[in-house]
């Protein structure tokens, strides 16, 4: 067992413990904090897989963007910050059962599969990773790139429209 | 247990925890957080396959980047909907959100 294996195992323990915190925390602020730690752990897992670019963008978008939005939403909604309001429903047993069933079936499927390891374990330097990804995104995968751009634009406009305060239209008074 | 299977097992566990959160949370924000965990589990799987199964090692990362982008868009729209719901109904308990049921 090399040092990297130990680090990867520790990262998984960290991430999974934080994930459990996300789903069981009574206070939604604590859940958001646990989600932050889980996301950082996932970024570490990406780094351990040699995907530095993905790890950076993951931190940038999830920790920088998504977490900010989530914390803002929790602060705006009064009852979510209240630790005395129950935040879980009655079906935790059924939920645990479904999740366990999913976990067992997934483990059964992939332990029965013979994976062919043909990957390239050589670590690529960061600048080269950026170059490779950028070439792919502006070459073979241009459609996905442009699609994501359009989706982001639509989502931004949609979010603004949805969250906007209703503006009372000024009606002329003599209509009645 | 090979290195790939370590990552797959961890990601399956992460996905199951997220699924549990989605099924048991009462408010929409908690469900959204569980959903984020599930997204992350899938992304870890994609990068692990790119690392151990794909000779070029890039296709899975491209998938992951697109999926992170889509997840960000999803969160933006979902939180806008959450805030709109809260403004109109003064609560976020998804069991009681049956306004659009006929």
Q: In DSSP terms, counting alpha (H) and pi (I) runs of 4 or more, how many helices of chain A? A: 6
Fraction of residues in H or I helices of chain B: over 70%
Oligomer: heterodimer
The N- to C-terminal Cα distance of chain A equals 82 Å
The total count of helices of chain B amounts to 3
Shape of chain B: elongated
**How many extended strands of chain A?**
0
Q: What is the residue-mean pLDDT of chain B, rounded to a whole number?
A: 87
The number of strands of chain B is 0
Explain this structure.
The complex is a heterodimer of chains A (176) and B (102). Chain A is mainly α and 176 residues long. Chain A is 70% helix and 0% strand. Chain A contains six helices and no strands. The longest helix of chain A has 25 residues, at 52-76. The N and C termini of chain A lie far apart (82 Å). Chain B has 102 residues and is mainly α. In chain B, 77% of the residues lie in helices and 0% in strands. Chain B has helices at residues 3-24, 28-53, 59-89. The longest helix of chain B is centred in the last third of the chain and has 31 residues, at 59-89. The chains are: A mainly alpha (176), B mainly alpha (102). At the A-B interface, helix 1, helix 2, helix 3, helix 4 and helix 5 of A face helix 1, helix 2 and helix 3 of B.
List keywords for this structure.
A: 176 residues, mainly alpha, 70% helix, B: mainly alpha, 0% strand
Could you give the topology of this structure?
The complex is a heterodimer of chains A (176) and B (102).
Chain A: H1 3-24, H2 28-48, H3 52-76, H4 92-112, H5 126-137, H6 142-163
Helix pairs in contact in A: 1-2, 2-3
Chain B: H1 3-24, H2 28-53, H3 59-89
Helix pairs in contact in B: 1-2, 2-3
């Amino acid at each position: 067992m090399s040092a990297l294996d130990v680090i990867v195992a520790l990262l998984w323990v960290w991430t999974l413990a934080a994930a459990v915190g996300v789903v069981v925390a009574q206070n939604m602020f604590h859940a958001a904090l646990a989600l932050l730690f889980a996301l950082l752990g996932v970024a570490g897992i990406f780094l351990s897989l040699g995907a530095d670019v993905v790890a950076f963008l993951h931190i940038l978008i999830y920790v920088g963007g998504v977490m900010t939005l989530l914390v803002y939403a929790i602060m705006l909604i009064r009852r979510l910050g209240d630790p005395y309001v129950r935040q879980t429903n009655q079906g935790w047993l059924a939920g645990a059962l479904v999740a366990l069933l999913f976990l067992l079936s997934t483990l059964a499927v992939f332990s029965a599969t013979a994976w062919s390891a043909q990957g390239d374990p050589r670590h690529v330097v960061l600048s080269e990773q950026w170059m490779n990804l950028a070439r792919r995104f502006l070459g073979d995968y241009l459609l996905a790139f442009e699609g994501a751009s359009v989706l982001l634009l639509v989502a931004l406009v949609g979010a603004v429209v949805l969250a906007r305060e209703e503006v009372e239209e000024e009606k002329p008074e003599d209509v009645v | 247990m090979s290195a790939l299977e370590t990552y797959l097992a961890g990601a399956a566990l992460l996905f199951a925890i997220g699924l549990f959160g989605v099924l048991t949370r009462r408010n929409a924000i908690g469900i959204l957080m569980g959903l984020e965990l599930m997204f992350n589990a899938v992304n870890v799987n994609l990068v692990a396959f790119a690392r151990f199964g794909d000779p070029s090692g890039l296709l899975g990362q491209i998938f992951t980047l697109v999926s992170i982008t889509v997840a960000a868009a999803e969160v933006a729209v979902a939180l806008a909907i959450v805030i709109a719901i809260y403004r109109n109904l003064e609560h976020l308990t998804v069991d009681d959100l049956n306004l659009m049921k006929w």
